[in-house]
Design goal:
The protein has about 350 residues and is of the alpha+beta class. It is built from 4 helices and 25 strands.
C-alpha cells in the first residue's frame, strides 16, 4: 500500500513538472504563408468605352439638270467611279444653241447701239432720257444673254464631288424636267460613323476627349474620328444616336455598310486610377477590396477599392486608397485574413523553365 502511495505521489509530481514546463514556453508565432503578389500601377485619369457602329456615306445626293429637255446621253452606270467635274449625263443642246445664237446676235446689236448713243451723249447730242433707256436695254439683253449661256452650259450634268454612282434613274432619249433626279452620287472621300450610347454615357459627354474607330476588315488599325453631334432624344431602345465624321485613308478600301467599333476616350471625375490583376479583388461586406502587403511587417490589410473597368487581359482598373508600387496579393485572396503574415513568392529563376525545380 505504501509503495502504491509513493508511486502515485511521484507521478503527480512529474505531471506537475510537465504542466509547469509547458506553461513556461513562449507561444509559437504564425508561420508566414507564401502568396503571389503584384505591384500597383498608376494610370492617367482617362478611360475608354467601345460601342458597335456602322459606316455609311457622309453624303448621297441626287443629281438633276437645271433645265428641261431630252437626254442626249447618260455616260455612267450604277457603281461607276466618277471624279469631281466629270460629265454624268447630257441634255440635247440643239435648241439651247439656237436660243443662245439668237440672243447673242441681239446682244451685239444693242451693245453697238448703246456705244453709238453713249458717244453722242458725251457730245450733248442725245438727251439723258434716251441715254438711260439705251443703257437699261443693254442691261436687260446682257442678263438674257448670260442666262442663255448658262442654260447651254447646264446641258452638261457634272459630278459635284468625287464618288460612286449609286443609282441611275433615266436613260438616253428620255425627256426630263428641271430638278428631276437623273442619278444619285455617293461621296466616298468622307464617311459617317453612327453609333448609339446609353444615357449614363450621354450624361458625361462633356468629359469626352477623343474619338477613334476600327473595323474588323483592317485588324490592328484605327482611324481618328470627328464628333459631329449626339442627338438629345433617345430612340426606342433608350439609346442616343451619335454621329462621327471619318476622313478616308487613301490606302484603305472603306465601303458604306461595313461594321465598325467606336472608341471614346473620356476624362474621369479626377479620381486617381490604378491597374491591378483582376484576381486581386474580392468581395467582403458588399464592398470590393484588395489585400495590401506591408513590406516592413509582412502583414496584409484590406483596402476598399472601386472597380472602374475589367480588361480582357486579366487586369482591373480601380480607384481607391492605393499608391503606385504598393504590393497587393494577386491569388488566393479569399483564404486570407486581416493582419495575417505573408511572404511574396520568389520570382522564378530564368534557368528554372516551367517552375519545375
Amino acid at each position: 500500500m505504501t509503495k502504491h502511495l509513493k508511486l502515485l505521489q511521484a507521478l503527480s509530481v512529474l505531471l506537475l513538472i510537465l504542466l509547469i514546463s509547458c506553461n513556461s514556453q513562449k507561444p509559437h508565432k504564425d508561420t508566414p504563408v507564401f502568396v503571389k503578389t503584384a505591384e500597383v500601377k498608376a494610370l492617367p485619369s482617362t478611360l475608354s468605352k467601345n460601342y458597335p457602329a456602322r459606316i455609311s456615306a457622309a453624303a448621297e445626293i441626287k443629281l438633276s439638270f437645271r433645265i428641261a429637255g431630252p437626254i442626249y446621253e447618260v455616260y455612267v452606270d450604277e457603281g461607276d467611279f466618277v471624279k469631281k467635274g466629270e460629265i454624268v449625263a447630257k441634255i440635247d443642246p440643239r435648241d439651247y444653241k439656237v436660243q443662245l445664237q439668237a440672243t447673242e446676235a441681239k446682244y451685239k446689236e444693242v451693245k453697238a447701239e448703246v456705244e453709238r448713243i453713249t458717244a453722242l451723249y458725251k457730245k450733248d447730242k442725245v438727251s439723258e432720257n434716251d441715254y438711260d433707256k439705251a443703257v437699261s436695254g443693254l442691261k436687260q439683253i446682257t442678263a438674257k444673254y448670260n442666262a442663255h449661256k448658262n442654260a447651254l452650259a447646264d446641258t452638261d450634268l457634272k459630278a459635284p464631288f468625287t464618288g460612286h454612282i449609286n443609282k441611275v434613274y433615266f436613260e438616253s432619249g428620255e425627256t426630263v424636267d428641271a430638278g428631276m433626279p437623273v442619278a444619285s452620287l455617293i461621296d466616298d472621300q468622307q464617311y459617317e460613323i453612327i453609333t448609339h450610347i446609353p444615357a449614363s454615357d450621354y450624361l458625361i459627354k462633356d468629359q469626352f476627349t477623343s474619338f477613334t474607330c476600327r473595323s474588323s476588315n483592317f485588324p490592328g488599325k484605327e482611324w481618328p474620328l470627328e464628333l459631329r453631334n449626339i442627338v438629345a432624344q433617345a430612340n426606342l431602345n433608350g439609346l442616343y444616336p451619335a454621329y462621327f465624321k471619318l476622313n478616308k485613308d487613301s490606302e484603305d478600301t472603306i465601303l458604306p455598310g461595313m461594321s465598325a467599333e467606336v472608341i471614346i476616350q473620356y476624362q474621369t471625375d479626377e479620381k486617381i486610377l490604378f491597374e491591378i490583376p483582376s484576381s486581386s479583388v474580392f468581395e467582403s461586406a458588399n464592398e470590393s477590396k484588395v489585400w495590401v502587403w506591408d513590406k516592413n511587417t509582412s502583414v496584409i490589410s484590406a483596402r476598399v477599392v472601386e472597380i472602374q473597368k475589367i480588361k480582357t487581359a486579366g487586369l482591373a482598373i480601380v480607384s481607391g486608397n492605393l499608391k503606385e508600387n504598393e504590393v497587393v496579393v494577386s491569388a488566393g485572396v479569399n483564404s486570407l485574413r486581416e493582419g495575417q503574415k505573408v511572404q511574396p513568392l520568389p520570382a522564378p529563376s530564368e534557368s528554372n523553365i516551367g517552375n519545375l525545380l
